Amino acid sequence: MIKANISGIGTALGENITNAKIEKDFNLKSGIIEKTTKLQTRYFFKQDEDLEPHILKAINQALQVAKLNLNDISCIICASAINRVAIPYNAAYIHKILNANPIIQTFDINMTCLSMLRAFDIGARLLDIHKHILLVSIDIASLGLDWEKVHTAGIFGDGISAMIISQSETGGIVFSDFQTHSCGYDLCQIKAGGYLYPPQHTKDYQKLGFFEMKGKELFKLTMQVLPKFITQSLKKAKININEISYIIPHQASFSSLAHATKMLKINPEKIINIFQNHGNQIASSIPFALKELFNKNVLKSKDKIMLIGTSAGLGLGLIIWEKP
Amino acid sequence: MIKANISGIGTALGENITNAKIEKDFNLKSGIIEKTTKLQTRYFFKQDEDLEPHILKAINQALQVAKLNLNDISCIICASAINRVAIPYNAAYIHKILNANPIIQTFDINMTCLSMLRAFDIGARLLDIHKHILLVSIDIASLGLDWEKVHTAGIFGDGISAMIISQSETGGIVFSDFQTHSCGYDLCQIKAGGYLYPPQHTKDYQKLGFFEMKGKELFKLTMQVLPKFITQSLKKAKININEISYIIPHQASFSSLAHATKMLKINPEKIINIFQNHGNQIASSIPFALKELFNKNVLKSKDKIMLIGTSAGLGLGLIIWEKP
C-alpha cells in the first residue's frame, strides 16, 4: 500500500458561544452546563448562516499548509456525519463551490463521528491512483440540539474541517481497525433525515430532528468495549502503548476521555484534549484535535500518533499513523 | 490490487404496481405514465412497511448464491442513496438486523445513484484485508415521489439489493473511473434530509421531501458528458467497445439509455435493460440489472462487463469488470 502523509489540515469555526449565553437564551440555571458536561465554551454557526465561505476557508487553509493548489487534488471525499441535503451527495456540493474540474472524483463516506477516520483509512488506499485527496467534514451539531436535555445538548460544538492526505515515501498508516457494536444502535440517534420518517408522511416531524442520546447506557457500553478494542489493536499491531507519541481521541465527552485514559494507564500529557473549549464536533473532532497537535510543532519524523474514537452505531475506530 | 469477484447478488422487491393503479390512485389521465416515461410497471414497498425482512431476504439470497455464511463476511458497506435516519449511519442498522459479530466493520458510501458502483470500486480495494465484503443498497424511491410531476415520479421503482464481492485469483476490476460535473448539482435534488433545512427551523418541511428533477437540462448535460466519458475511459483502459461482452447501465431513464447506446454505436443486445418493468431503482439499479445478466447464464470466464451510470451531482462512473 502507498504510504499516506497528512499534508495539511484546515478548519473553520463559527461564533464563540459561552455557557452563560446559552443559559440565558434557553432559561437554564446559571452554571448548569459546565456542571453537567465540564464544557466551558464552544463555537456555533448562526442558524441560516451561509456555510460556503467557511467551507472554502477550511479547504484553502488545508491547501496552503500542504503547499498545494486545487489542481493537485484529484479526489474529494466528504466525511460529514450529517448530509447537506438528501440528494445529491455532499461531496458534489463541495466540488461545486470549489468550481472544480470534472475529472476530480467525489463521493461521501459516513460512519457518523468516525467518518473522517474511516475516510482517512479508505483515502490512504486510493493514493495508488491519487497523489492528493481532500477530505472534508461539515458538521453543524447546533442545528439538532434540544436544550431541554442539557447533558446531551451541552457537549456539542460546530466545526468544519478539511484534511489533505498525500502520497509519501515514508511513514503512513501502520495499523487500522474498526468494529461495530450494533447492540448500541439505539443509544444515539437523529430519527429524521431518511426513509424511516419521510417528511411527507410523518406527523410532528420537527421533533425528530433533535439528537437523542442515552448517555449512561452509551458510556457503559463504550467502557465495556473501547479499552479492550485499543488493547487488542496494539497487540495486533505489535506496538507498545509507550511507542505511541500522541493520542488523538474523538472528543466525545469529558468523562469518556478521562475514564478511557485511566483504564489504559495512558500518560495524560500524550492525549490531545480540546473538549472543554470545542465540545464534540462530530466528525470534525479528530481533525481539529490533530491540527492542535500539529500547531504545537512538537512532532518529529517517525512519531506514532494514535487516532481513536467511537461513533453512533456503536462504531469503534483506531488508526496508528507514523509521521513521515 | 487483489482481484475482485462478484460472488453473489440478492434482491428484494415490494408489490408490483401497474401504471393503471397509480393513474387511478392519483387521478391521472389513463396511459399518461407509459406515454411520458415508457415505464410499464414497477415495484413499490408499502408506505410504513417494515423493510427488515426484505433487507434480510436480499442479503441471505446473496450469501446463498455466493455459498457463504455471514461469518465469512468481515465488512459491510451500505451504499444507499438515501439514509434510513440521519444518525447512526446505515450500515450499523444492517449490522444490527443481522445480529452480526462486532468485529465486522461497517460504513456507508454515498454517490447517490452510483453508490453501489463506487462501493464496488472501494470495496475491491479493501479485499487485501477482507476475503468477502457485503454491499447493500436500500433505496425506496416511492416515498419521495410527487405524482403531480408524472415525468419525474413515473420513472422510479423501489429496490433492495445485496452484492457480495470476494477475493479472486483471476478476473476483477480492470478499469474504473469517476467524474463530477457539479455544474449540474441543482438538476436533481431532495432538499430535506440534512443541515440545509433542519426540520426544527424550517416551515413547510413536508414538500422538501419530494424528489425534484429538471429533466430536460439533465438529459442535455448527460448527453454532453457521458458518451465522451465512456469513449475516453475505453481509450485509457485500452479496450475496444467490441471487447465488452455486456453493458450494465444505471437504469436512469429510457431515453438516456436509448440515446447513449445510439451515440456510442453499441449493439443493443449487449445492453441489459430492465427499465420498463423496474424503473430507476436509484443505487439498486445496477445490482438488479447485473443479477438479470447473471441469471441468463450466458457469462463465460474472461467476459468483460461494463458497468456505467450517472448520479445526481452530476456524477459519472464506469467500471470494466472481468469475470473470473
UniProtKB/TrEMBL annotation, chains A, B:
<dbReference type="InterPro" id="IPR013747">
    <property type="entry name" value="ACP_syn_III_C"/>
</dbReference>
<dbReference type="GO" id="GO:0044550">
    <property type="term" value="P:secondary metabolite biosynthetic process"/>
</dbReference>
<protein>
    <submittedName>
        <fullName>3-oxoacyl-ACP synthase</fullName>
    </submittedName>
</protein>
<feature type="domain" description="Beta-ketoacyl-[acyl-carrier-protein] synthase III N-terminal">
    <location>
        <begin position="107"/>
        <end position="181"/>
    </location>
</feature>
<dbReference type="InterPro" id="IPR013751">
    <property type="entry name" value="ACP_syn_III_N"/>
</dbReference>
<feature type="domain" description="Beta-ketoacyl-[acyl-carrier-protein] synthase III C-terminal">
    <location>
        <begin position="234"/>
        <end position="322"/>
    </location>
</feature>
<dbReference type="InterPro" id="IPR016039">
    <property type="entry name" value="Thiolase-like"/>
</dbReference>
<dbReference type="Pfam" id="PF08545">
    <property type="entry name" value="ACP_syn_III"/>
</dbReference>
<keyword id="KW-0012">Acyltransferase</keyword>
<keyword id="KW-0808">Transferase</keyword>
<dbReference type="GO" id="GO:0006633">
    <property type="term" value="P:fatty acid biosynthetic process"/>
</dbReference>
<dbReference type="GO" id="GO:0004315">
    <property type="term" value="F:3-oxoacyl-[acyl-carrier-protein] synthase activity"/>
</dbReference>
<dbReference type="Pfam" id="PF08541">
    <property type="entry name" value="ACP_syn_III_C"/>
</dbReference>
